[in-house]
Design brief:
160 residues; alpha+beta; Lipocalin; 8-stranded antiparallel β-barrel; 21% helix; elongated
Length: 160
């Protein structure tokens, strides 16, 4: 009987210490705060073009604002490379993440003869898309997997 009592007291003490001094469970809204980087390129085929997004990073802040940047390469009917960075807002309800781009700077890295500067047009188009909603597939302290609700594309990001 004494062994059972000792085991019970030890288990209770461990439980009490874990509850008091350990990491508290975080909500998804708390877990997403921080900087996340892509683990692999995101490749999309669209209208005869292959679009590859690399070196993506996004920072979710506690005040529900975001900061992001990435490089993009397009090939197919024409080839060009560009980078973009910007800011936005985010909100989460259950496993649904809604993001809205509020400002974006596009920097064309490829000059296409006869093609006008498309930086402003592409920036305006990204802002005009309005809110986008994604489904959070999984989210923990180190890994964030999200699926775009429109394209069905899934991407994995790691905490920086």
């Amino acid at each position: 009987m004494r062994k059972i009592f000792t085991l019970f007291v030890t288990a209770f003490a461990m439980l009490a210490l874990t509850a008091c001094g350990g990491d508290k469970a975080k909500t998804p809204e708390q877990l997403i705060v921080g900087t996340w980087v892509s683990t692999a390129p995101i490749v999309v085929e669209e209208s005869g073009m292959t679009i590859s997004i690399t070196d993506m990073a996004v920072t979710y802040k506690k005040d529900n604002t975001t900061k992001f940047n990435a490089d993009m390469a397009m090939s197919g009917l024409m080839a060009m490379e560009l980078s973009f960075s910007g800011t936005g807002t985010w909100a989460m309800e259950g496993d649904q993440l809604t993001e809205t781009i509020t400002a974006v700077d596009v920097d064309m890295k490829t000059e296409v003869p006869g093609m006008p500067d498309m930086n402003d047009m592409m920036s305006e188009q990204m802002i005009a898309e309005g809110k986008t909603t994604s489904t959070i597939v999984s989210l923990d302290k180190k890994t964030y997997v999200v699926k775009d609700n429109d394209s069905g594309e899934t991407m994995t990001l790691k905490r920086k």
